[in-house]
Amino acid sequence: MKISLTVNGAQRAFDVHPGDTLLEVLRREGYKGVKKGCGAGDCGACAVLLDGRAVNSCLVLAGKADGSEVLTIEGLSKDGALHPLQEAFLDEGAVQCGYCTPGMIIASLDLLTHHPDPNEEEIREGIAGNLCRCTGYTKELRAIQAAAEKMREARHG
Ligand code: FES
Ligand code: FES
Question: Could you tell me the fold of the domain covering 2-75?
Answer without folding.
Answer: Ubiquitin-like (UB roll) (3.10.20)
